């Protein structure tokens, strides 16, 4: 077991076996610039290049445990950064699932694809990387079983709610509160809030 996974398990951030396996198999180091690879096991945010920071692993673990991704699911991921979180999701969904990953910065979009292809996630079709802010979601791929946003927004874009399938789950930060949503009917979106997190702003023109 890697030091990072051991730390996340001991501190209660990682609990489900499938996510433990994903964190073991999809190394954070493969998604960092070479000068930061030696710090990959530290539970701290790290630069991912182009002036951007990657998320703290414990925060990623909390988000994914709330999201509860499963094999075969279709997942929309907004703010893919260097691709690590998309890679973790791709591992979980397996060959029968699909992850659509949006990134708004062209340089990071290219890095994301290169990093994910180290695991054959692009060529195999598990991940489709899309350059764009993702505000309108991905109608041609809807409905999604899960939606994950890794950067802070001001509110839920209506497109996300409409593209989430029935019984689907969505996790996104709203003003540094981590929010969990479950679509219980076309009209009802159950919500829980978890305060005390800090996220970078989602790069969108507007919501």
Structure notes:
The protein is of the alpha/beta class. It is 27% helix and 26% strand. It has helices at residues 3-10, 17-25, 57-67, 84-93, 106-117, 158-163, and strands at residues 46-49, 52-54, 74-78, 98-103, 127-131, 144-149, 164-174, 177-183, 189-194. It has a seven-stranded mixed beta sheet. The chain has a two-stranded antiparallel ribbon with strand order 1-2. The longest helix has 12 residues, at 106-117. It is globular and about 45 Å long. The termini are far apart. The model is unreliable at 203-207 (pLDDT under 50).
DSSP E strands, number:
9
Order of helices and strands: HHEEHEHEHEEHEEE
- What is the tally of helical segments? 6
How much helix is in the residues? 25-40%
Which secondary-structure class do the elements indicate?
A: alpha/beta
Radius of gyration of CA atoms, rounded to a whole number: 16 Å
- Terminal CA distance: 41 Å
- Shape, please? globular
Described by strand count, sense and barrel closure, the largest sheet is:
7 strands, mixed
Average pLDDT score: 92
Strand content: 25-35%
Largest sheet, order of strands side by side? Answer: 5-4-3-6-7-8-9
Low-confidence stretches: 203-207
Keywords:
alpha/beta; 6 helices; seven-stranded mixed beta sheet; 27% helix; two-stranded antiparallel ribbon; 207 residues; disordered C terminus
SSE layout:
Layout: H1 3-10, H2 17-25, E1 46-49, E2 52-54, H3 57-67, E3 74-78, H4 84-93, E4 98-103, H5 106-117, E5 127-131, E6 144-149, H6 158-163, E7 164-174, E8 177-183, E9 189-194
Parallel strand pairs: 3-4, 3-6, 4-5, 6-7
Antiparallel strand pairs: 1-2, 7-8, 8-9
Helix pairs in contact: 2-4
